[in-house]
Amino acid sequence: MRKYGDRVTDKNTDKNMKILHGITEIAGQNSYAVQGLREIGLDAESVVLMENVFGYKNDICLHIDRNDKKKLPISVLKLGRFLVRALRKYTVFHFHAGNSIGFNHELFLYKLFHKKLFYEFHGSDIRDIRKFCETSKMEYLPDMDIDEHTKERNRKICRKADGIILHDDELIPYLPETHAPVYGVPLRVDIERFTPTFPETDPKTIRIVHAPSRRGIKGTQFILDAFDRLKEKYPNLEFVLVEGKTQEEAFEIYKTADIMRSIRPQISSWIRFSSEPTVCSP
After folding, report:
1. Per the CB 3.0–4.6 Å rule, which of 35, 106, 148, 177 could disulfide with 102?
2. Distance (Å, whole) CA 123 – CA 185
3. pTM: predicted TM-score of the whole model, two decimal places
4. Tens digits of per-residue pLDDT, 17-49?
């Protein structure tokens, strides 16, 4: 796998690139990528189907709910119109979580119009849970696994893409065979947004904060059970669950934490920049 400093294009072509990041937002990686590209002088835009519940920024929201079957004909029309405009406007298409503008039915068009095509996988969109559990000795949870349709989608993506992006070597075993280069790109974070806040040296109450995106697959119940046992021994403990908050609202709560319990590596990165002790599961 090519590592973190490798360039995808020649420096002389950078000024001519117009980059689309879409069409899904995963933990701010879409918007942070666009922000970083702009900071080095590239022309990039973030496009999403729907506004993200966590309040991540975007440049274009298509306001399309792909789960609303009643509006499917209208959604297909809107996506088709946007695809035509996008093919005229952008030279590089960078899609997240296996979702493209035409849900991967239009991939041949990018080759036809001489566009560069990149896909970025984030974890659960490609990870084979059965294989993962065999390796990690964890209990297999079928509801967390990707289905055969998703596996075939990923195989198609790896055949068509000009490059594949992963956050960690851990995901390599789940990647279908591909002739495209595979790039390791760390999770992005804007460190300029953080000012260290230090807890009291001898607090009367110790606040533990946990921020699950989905309780069922983040082990939240185990954490709650463990806290109940700790509370009996240490009555000065306070436990705060952060759910249903925008990123900005969540950050303000993180600042009040004495200990942060995180399942998501990007949250751990945010908190380390804010100086709170962090316990993280991979």
Report:
1. 106
2. 13
3. 0.76
4. 999 999 999 888 999 999 999 999 999 999 999
